[in-house]
Write a structure and sequence with these properties.
Arc Repressor Mutant, subunit A, alpha/beta, five-stranded parallel sheet
Length: 287
């Protein structure tokens, strides 16, 4: 399996998405490239192979796994990414907590263009259409994906698409087992390898439900076994970063955007739902 996302996706987004499931030798190449993309631009395939302690043919295979014709095309893409992401040098940190916050926000901002790079028009349209047409939508997330799943459920309901959320893992499995082929089970997991969430997916699959997911890794168990997987590269840039920092910022941004797309897809009924929500909100705000 090679890259199936947008042709415009930068190399680091492809590495972050596909890296965990590359062959070990290919992963070593990807890690060397990701560690210093500017330096990798200046390397020949043979020089990169020597740095990764593998054969030159593996460098070519890695480039192809990432969706490029060969290593020269990968080098061009790396050069373009470096040019696109170069910014003025940030002022030296003054050691304050505010400086640390600003640095993290700036790092996220520099990678913001990557969050949609693995999405395609066909997948997004199919994803939205299935949610709109389903008789039931069960939203599932565990661990740090649980708050996002609750948020998605509330936003779907506000968009006129009632959805269900169950906080307990056993209750999720029971709920998934009661779905039908006309239902959607929407699974959210950054790693795509959360065992409680995978258990719910198995129950949903046994019930015949349609399985959709939002995750950060294309070859994760969750993405591989879903009917539609929308992959959002992690802002940390690696599977290790996902495990350490467990940020859901990029997933939350895409989730909100998808629900906005759902409102557009629903047309007049979407506008009616928004009007009803605004009416409810206006009555709950105190002076």
């Amino acid at each position: 399996m090679t890259w199936t996302g947008s042709d415009d996706a930068p190399p680091t987004a492809r590495i972050a998405t596909l890296g965990p499931s590359l062959q070990p030798s290919e992963r070593r190449v990807a890690e060397v490239v990701a560690a210093d993309i500017a330096g990798a631009v200046e390397l020949t395939a043979q020089e990169l192979a020597e740095q990764a302690n593998i054969g030159r043919a593996t460098v070519v295979r890695t480039a192809q796994s990432l969706g490029y014709e060969g290593f020269p095309q990968l080098r061009v893409a790396l050069a373009l990414e470096v040019a696109m992401t170069e910014t003025e040098a940030a002022p030296a940190s003054d050691g304050t907590l505010l400086a640390a916050v600003r640095r993290n926000v700036e790092q996220f901002g520099s990678r913001l263009h990557q969050v949609t790079s693995a999405l395609t028009e066909a997948n997004v349209t199919d994803f939205v259409a299935r949610i709109d047409a389903a008789d039931r939508v069960l939203v599932v997330g565990n661990g740090l994906s649980a708050p996002l799943s609750l948020d998605v459920t509330m936003r779907l309901s506000s968009a006129g698409r009632p959805a269900e959320y169950l906080p307990d893992a056993l209750a999720q499995r029971i709920g998934a087992s009661q779905l039908s082929s006309a239902s959607v089970c929407l699974l959210i997991s950054g790693s795509g390898a959360s065992k409680p969430t995978l258990d719910v997916m198995a129950s949903a699959r046994a019930s015949g439900a349609q399985i959709l997911c939002l995750t950060s890794f294309a070859r994760s168990p969750l993405a591989q076994d879903s009917d539609i997987a929308l992959v959002v590269p992690p802002v940390e840039g690696s599977f290790q970063g996902e495990l350490i920092y467990t940020s859901r910022v990029s997933l939350a941004l895409i989730a909100e955007s998808l629900i906005n797309a759902l409102s557009i897809y629903r047309g007049g009924s979407g506008k009616e739902s928004q009007a009803a929500v605004l009416a409810a909100i206006s009555g709950s705000i105190a002076e």
